[in-house]
Amino acid sequence: MTLPITTLRGITWEHPRGYDCQVAAAAEYERRTGVRVEWEFRSLQLFADAPLEDLTARYDLLVIDHPHVPLAAKAGLLAALDGAGHDEELAALAADSVGPSHATYAHAGHQYGLATDTASQVAVHRPDRLPDAPTTWDQVLELADEGRVIWPAKPIDAWSSLCTIAANRGTPVGASPGVFLSAEDAAPVLDLLHRLADRVPAWCLSANPIQVAEALAAESDEVWAYAPLLYGYSNYSRAAFRPQRLRYVDMPAGLRGVAGSQLGGAGVAVSSRASDLAAARAYALWVASPEIQSGLYYDAGGQPGYGASWDDDRLNADSLDFFRGTRRTVEESWVRPRTAGLIELQDTVSPWVTKTLRRDLSDETLLHRANELAARLLVEQDTREDR
Question: Which keywords describe this protein according to UniProt (predicted)?
Fold first, then answer.
């Protein structure tokens, strides 16, 4: 038996979209190159919260959330992918970015990750119960009055919806250093969130996008047919993944159409302490390539990150046009402020947003606390030149 030339360790998140696709890609990569990549996973919550200092010390490859990039790069935790013999490939990927996704893994003129998984908040409906999805918020609220709408509003998802609606109105969170939202800008955002929260089942305020998609896709006597804002999961649009298929579409139109959805997704990055930097960089570029993303990566449950896959006829036919049906929203998505305190602000304010939707906290208290915190955490200017 021939032993692998190199063994790399990778950490991703617990879902076919995060784990199964990387395992399948790694098996093919070892067959082609002799380099083994052993993937482990952590929960979706730890995907957002686990300190990168710990992960980069233990793993060579990491699937990460893009808001971590500026701090991780400044702390020297991630290896730059540019300047190491892959610049032509990086330029091609940058040109093929879906919206701002690729650029969110850049900082200070260097590329620290690749947008191998692209998503933003979009809408979803179950075609057998609702052939055509609402396109405006008035239509969404009318459908919610009929008991047919559900929506993930656990803290991080309530935060995401607040940020999306604020950005759609042209008043994004953190637009001015040290400011969360002004009272004037926050009022219509919170009003819409309250009207939605008052019309969906109580369990939604502790649900995430996966749980809402599972509820919509299940065989049940419920009449739920639509969710207006949640991160898209192409898995639920594929045949045989769950009892019923879901169709993802653009978010409901607001003041700026479908612009402003909070960009999510995930990207593959390389630890600066990787046991073999060259091998780790090579795998990252390979798994981001159109051949792999549109082939075995997607087929094993992955959600590709780049335009060649989003335009792929086979992938769209297989997923009820998931990619083409949500691309306009993703192309016009909003990127969270790239400041050092963003993660702490997000983690602290998120539970307050859900408490406010439960009427356990007043709008005024939420806004006062969030602005006090922003005055301390969002003081660094948003740096656009590193995009």
Answer: Sugar transport, Transport
User: Would you say 312 and 323 are in contact if contact means Cβ atoms under 8 Å apart?
Assistant: yes
- pLDDT for 4 equals 62
For position 117, what pLDDT does the model report? 97
Given this chain, do its domains 6-119+264-319 and 121-262+337-387 carry the same CATH topology?
Answer: yes
Cα separation, 149 vs 224, in Å, equals 6
Whether domain 6-119+264-319 has CATH 3.40.50.880? no
Using CA atoms, how far residue 222 sits from 59, 145, 205, in Å, is 44, 15, 18
The letter for the amino acid at 255 is L
CATH 3.40.190.10 for domain 121-262+337-387? yes
Question: Tens digits of per-residue pLDDT, 221-250?
Answer: 999 999 999 999 999 999 999 999 999 999
What is the pTM for the complete model shown? 0.93
Output the CA–CA distances (angstroms, integers) from residue 53 to 75, 98, 142, 157, 301, in the order listed.
9, 29, 47, 25, 29
Amino acid at 387: R
Residue with tokens 């792929």: 312
Which token pair is 272?
Answer: 């600066």
DSSP calls for 199-257 = TS-GGGGG--HHHHHHHHHS-SS----EEEEEE--GGGGSTTSSSS--EEEPPPBBTTB
Res. 271: pLDDT tops 50: yes
